[in-house]
Design a protein that fits this description.
Length: about 260
């Protein structure tokens, strides 16, 4: 008998609690509407068709009764949920003149930056004796250029064609004579030697008495370079944020390896 009385009391408490929660939600909604009205008076208000309708409010109450397997007592759980539907916004048509004013061009200037544009250079076949190449991912990448060579071929270039013929291996550039037309394009970062350094001080080949004048490079502290090749005197590399910036960098320049 006492148990039944306790159950009735708990049920009454639960119902009262549900009513209190419902009233509290209504109060919150009322305060939110007042705040929205206040903000609308003080600020700039954007009117969109359909905004006049208030958000639809759906309140659902879920009532579950479970029995504790140990004590045998029944427990009643009431879940109150509030669902707010979003407002509908309508697209507004613009005339051709308005579209022209608001649209921005897809590209400004060149479609591709110079770092990724292919170039055709005319060279004497003997210049190919002044370079070293490495086959990386099926592409013939120039890794070393003699400092006495002409400034036509750069470290980091990929030789894609010779006289219009596709090049896929180093034997295709051996034993050639006469004038040649090479198609060159800077190798993507992942298609070049995977060795990187961060320089720890500024460097300018233009102010370096021993620097390579025909292939100048400017570096700032913190720049990361990708190394094509190196010896005891120079590192031949390029800046990873601009693959067209390639040159001879003193091997003694303060730097740290980047993994």
């Amino acid at each position: 008998m006492e148990t039944q009385s306790e159950i009735e009391q708990l049920r009454g408490n639960a119902e009262n609690l549900a009513k209190c929660l419902h009233a509290l939600l209504e109060k919150i909604e009322e305060l939110e509407r007042k705040r929205g009205d206040s903000n609308g008076k003080n600020g700039c208000e954007l009117k969109v068709r359909g905004d006049e309708d208030e958000n639809e409010k759906i309140v659902s109450i879920e009532d579950n009764i479970t029995t504790d397997p140990v004590t045998g007592l029944k427990k009643r759980t009431i879940v109150t949920e509030r669902v707010l539907t979003t407002k509908t916004f309508h697209s507004l048509s613009l005339g051709d003149g308005e579209i022209a004013k608001t649209q921005r061009p897809l590209t400004i200037g060149k479609v591709l930056c110079s770092a990724y544009q292919s170039r055709a250079v005319k060279v004497d076949a003997r210049q190919l004796n002044q370079i070293e190449t490495e086959l990386i991912s099926g592409q013939l990448v120039v890794t070393n250029v003699n400092s006495a060579a002409r400034p036509d071929i750069h470290p980091g270039d990929t030789i894609t064609e010779v006289n219009g013929e596709t090049v896929t291996k180093s034997s295709q550039i051996k034993g050639l004579v006469g004038k040649l037309v090479l198609t060159l394009v800077p190798a993507p970062i992942h298609n070049a030697p995977p060795l990187f350094y961060r320089v720890l001080c500024d460097y300018s080949s233009s102010t370096d008495e021993n620097g390579c004048k025909w292939l100048p490079i400017e570096l700032k502290r913190g720049d990361v370079i990708q190394v094509m090749s190196e010896d005891g005197k120079f590192t031949q590399g390029r800046k990873i944020n601009d693959l067209s910036k390639v040159g001879y960098i003193p091997s003694s320049l303060a730097r740290e390896k980047v993994k």
